[in-house]
Amino acid sequence: MDATGAPASLATAVDLVAPAGRVVAVGISDRELTLSMRSLPIKEIDLLGSRNSLHLDDALALLDRNQDACRPLITHRFGFDELDGAFRLLRDRTQRVGKIAVDLPAAAPDRSARDATALCARGGRS
């Protein structure tokens, strides 16, 4: 999932996604994006744009109720300050990688989870 709105970041996500994977573009920008026309059909990936989700609370509740079923999907976990290591692991390709979880810093106590999600989607800008 790319929430930056930076064309280079989305292009990198398309390059790094596993074959038959999915990239979700949440970030919004007026800048042009250049991708190789080979990326989508050769890797058989899905590129999905999403600006909003009315069902985010339901999806998070579903994940919360089924943590044991989801846990084996996450093969690696990194702190937000360790993102370089997560990207190195993705490029390395010598280890089996399922899903990488990134632990985000906690939101300020006076912000709701929805406000924190919106702040993250805007690249941290208030």
Describe this structure as you would to a colleague.
This protein has 126 residues and is α/β, with parallel strands linked by helices. The chain has six helices and four strands, in the order H-E-H-E-H-H-E-H-E-H. It has helices spanning 7-16, 39-43, 56-65, 67-70, 83-92, 113-121; strands at residues 22-25, 46-49, 74-79, 99-103. It has a two-stranded parallel ribbon. The relative contact order is 0.13. The model is unreliable at 107-126 (pLDDT under 50).
What's a quick, concise take on this entry?
The chain has 126 residues and is α/β, with parallel strands linked by helices. Helices cover 38% and strands 15% of the residues.
Could you outline the blueprint of secondary structure elements for this entry?
Elements (H helix, E strand, L loop, with lengths): L6 H10 L5 E4 L13 H5 L2 E4 L6 H10 L1 H4 L3 E6 L3 H10 L6 E5 L9 H9 L5
